[in-house]
Design brief:
The complex is a heterodimer.
Chain A lengths: L1 H21 L17 H6 L8 H7 L2 E8 L3 H17 L3 E8 L2 H14 L5 E4 L4 H6 L7 H6 L33 E6 H6 L8 H13 L3 E4 L7 H14 L1 H8 L8 H15 L12 H9 L3 E7 L3 H4 L5 E4 L13 E3 L7 E4 L6 H21 L17 H12 L2 E3 L8 H14 L6 H16 L4
Parallel strand pairs in A: 1-2, 1-3, 5-6, 8-10
Antiparallel strand pairs in A: 3-9, 4-6, 4-7
Helix pairs in contact in A: 4-15, 10-11, 10-12, 10-17, 12-18, 17-18
Chain B lengths: L1 H5 L1 H20 L2 H7 L2 E3 L4 E4 L3 H7 L2 H17 L3 H13 L3 H16 L2 H12 L5 H8 L16 H26 L3 H9 L4 H12 L1 H16 L3 H6 L11 H11 L3 H25 L8
Helix pairs in contact in B: 3-16, 4-16, 5-10, 5-13, 5-15, 6-10, 7-10, 8-10, 10-13, 13-16, 15-16
Classes of the chains: A alpha/beta, B mainly alpha.
Chain lengths: ~450, ~290
Amino acid sequence: MRNRTKWIGLLALVFLLLMQVACGNGKSGGNNAEPGKSSTGQSETGKSEASEEPSQETKQEPVKLKLMMHVADDTRKAIAQMMKDRLAEKLPGYEVEFELVGTATDWENKLRTYNVTGDLPDVFYMAGAPSFPIIKAGNVIDLTSYIQEDGFAKKYSDPAVLAPASDGKMYAMPEGFDFYFNPRLFYNKDIFEKYGLDIPKTYDELLAVSKTLNDKGVIPMVVPAKDFNGAGLFLNIVMMMLDNPQTVLDLNDHKIDWSDPKVIAALNRVKQLVNEKVLPEGVVNLDYGAAANLFATKKAAMYAAMTWDLSSIEKTPDVDFMLWPQVNPAVDPNSVTMYWGAPNSGYAVSSKSKHIAEAVKLAEYAAEISSFGFTEIGKSPSALKTDAKMDMSDLAKRNLEQFDQTTIKVPPLALNLGSKMFSEYLKLSSSLLTGQYTGEQFAKDIAKPWEEEKKGSK
Amino acid sequence: MSSFYNNRLALFLFSAPTLILFTLFVVYPLFPQIRISFFDHDGINYNGFVGLDNYRDVLHSSEFWHSAYNNVKIVLISTFVGLPISLLLALVLDRMSPGIRRYFRMTSFMPAVLSVTVIAQMWIAMFEPRFGALNQALSTVGLGDLKRIWLGDPETALPSVAFAFLWQYIGLNMVLFYTGIKSIPKTYYEAALIDGAGFFQTNVRIVLPLLQEVVKFVLVISVIGCLRQFEHVKMMTNGGPGSASRTVIYELYYRAFNMYEFGVGSVIAILFVVACLLITFMINNLVAREKMEF
């Protein structure tokens, strides 16, 4: 009998302990409260329902939101700081928790995970393939009516920037400058002068110049490849574009396949850049920062990069950009370029946000500050009008002039691919950079996800 | 009172909190996984029952078998190369003076407590083909022919990652072996000394047989640790080049979170759990079957 009493007592104790553990966080339930009905303040201040003037208290409660930004480069980091600094002035009554995500891989992984777990921040930056499953899951709101009603849409100088997604809805607040980003081949002028080298005008000249640079112990060209898949995101497309821009347009419209001889030839040119040591050994494992650093420290002569890095790149003395070396005599490299912006790129608002209207305002604020920052710091033009002073450097001016000169602007093919296709495409693009994987193999391995993509399963 | 504590029910009650939490957070989540494995699931929505299609997809996937093969390679490198080295180091450590022993015990344990990010970044720098210490060292000692693009070549990427993993845990395993060695009564060593046994004979005939339970334990945690390898691969090669260094868990992650094929990911998870259980069962039944007490 005594034993039985002990067991029952012990059992009760165990359950009490478990209950204590399980209910230990019960007080934090107020975090889910609606604005204006806030119970958050009660738990924080220790006040309860007995409070005499709950409505006055809630009016003073700041709106708590979370904003996730992608800050892969110095310009974005500076913009993030600008957003924090100006928040109190521009959006009084907002308390924003900033989540700054570094590399493209981390940003993608976070978006994918948040999307699946349903924990997307109130406002977040999205673009390209990761946006499709977020839209499909209904985790973002259509911003069209919001920006029309509050007049924010009028701030865009070019309505083309507000191009909706394929379903006619607009899921992200464009920053306005994406469109002007393009892949450039930057080079260290002093290295070319030191070794008496001319700027390569053709692809063959590029191979010859690279051989000389290698003989001198200088890495001819770097491209970020590990965390930012430079091959997949622009180099493959540039190689297609230089041969025939129509190839990119047709592939983007699903009019041709990856087995098209022109596509395979372009992919093999990327492989050749590795085999001919234009790109350094182990380039497939070269991080964004490492690639930039090799160029800035003059260990590499050329740097294939997107122009959002221009403000950082031009800090290195004696830097300029060259036109991409001509591949096909019929295509003038001065007439073609690849733009970056795509529908669904910009700041999106989570449909699960408890403060949708406030989150839309925050998304507008984020887009506006980004546009301002990229114009002031990044020296980049933007279609989203702000009071930023366009104090462009000589290099930035020439970049813009050349961009405006181009008569054919091909889309960022990779950004328009669905999730499955995008993942496989990047994986195989990384294989190309080993120099052991051919365009033919690429075409064969991509065939299955490509067929699924064409059937419309993004 | 003593009868109460010796009672099986009392033991059950004492372990109940842990068992309940284990069931809730480890066993229970497996059941939804099993359900998802029979559906086309994108992580959010069930898009229809597909029967055994996901299982067929995984079992016919060359990528899955390639990643499983990679896991086997990591086990071979990290366990069957790493564990003998750890054991040897533990035996040598046992013969060192207390001061030196304390120093090595502490320093060799450090990599195991460091973040994988730190370890991965360190080895990425070491393996860097142009400026990395490894290739530089090979050139310096006249072995320039052995220089490789360690993490950028499909042939060497996985062994390089496995080596970094081995390096991180070699000290931890050494400490575990050393603890086992210290638990062997000194009288056995004294008897061996009187019988004229040397270092080799003492270790082979006395230490190793009496250490078998520790060996079994270290073997299980090492093999399972190698099978669930993900962090080093993710940090050092991102599974690449291409998919050259993917492990099963990386493949699971890729199919679920990159391709949004959570049904397929669940199948891989289930196969992985089954494989781990089988391997643990085999090690427990095939290694050190005869229990030695001292």
